[in-house]
Amino acid sequence: MNAYWPAELVEGPVTLRPIRLRDQRLWRDVNRRNRDWLRPWEATVPPPLPGTPPTRRPTFRQMVRHLRAEAHAGRMLPFVIEYEGRLCGQITVAGITWGSMRSGHIGYWVDQDVAGRGVMPTAVALTVDHCFRRVGLHRIEVCIRPENTPSRRVVEKLGFRDEGLRPRYLHIDGAWRDHLVFALTAEEVPEGLLARWRSLWHSQK
């Protein structure tokens, strides 16, 4: 494995760890309970071109094996999120590019039952610090549908820069959807993103 993977990142009741095959039952339970909450923001597969077979969604086992292979190759960091020891979501750094770019983008989802408790900002801050300080990336993007107010609040709280709109950027919930692009570079958080979030979180209590 890479020097920076597998990794376990912890801040208070929030833990990020690699996704495992044995997470299947808990992962499916959380997804099932949150189906309506997550559906408007989940990636979907576009219709196939004429004469080509439809693309099937992978099984959980296939998904985990793919994520592990991509992590081993240095192209992805796939974490599950635990809150107080219970699996409650997922955060993945994908599209990792090396060379002169050294960037990646973050996608995430969380159980509605723990929304508003600081879980997702903490998870994003932990992930960004790991990417900048341990992995050696320089830039992190988060792309969010304009209508996804809870997700936008996460990056806005953390101080991500709004870089504008990407029209019809991703196939989400059955159609090509516009996304807003938010980004950070390592120079913008010399103190670490987690330190920034701790200060803000404590000031709100």
Give your account of this protein's structure:
Residues 14-187 form the N-acetyltransferase domain. It comes from Streptomyces coryli. This is GNAT family N-acetyltransferase. The chain has 205 residues and is α+β, with helices and mostly antiparallel strands. It has one domain (9-204): Aminopeptidase. It has 6 helices and 8 strands. The chain has helices at residues 24-33, 35-38, 60-72, 119-135, 149-158, 193-204, and strands at 9-11, 14-18, 77-83, 86-97, 103-110, 139-144, 161-172, 175-185. Strands 1-2-3-4-5-6-8-7 form an 8-stranded mixed beta sheet, sandwiched between helices. Strand 1 (9-11) and strand 2 form a beta hairpin. Helix 4 (119-135) packs across helix 5 and helix 4 (119-135) runs antiparallel to helix 6 (193-204). The chain starts with 8 loop residues before the first strand and ends with a helix.
Question: Can I get a quick summary?
Answer:
The protein is α+β, with helices and mostly antiparallel strands and 205 residues long. The chain has a single domain (9-204), classed as Aminopeptidase, CATH 3.40.630.
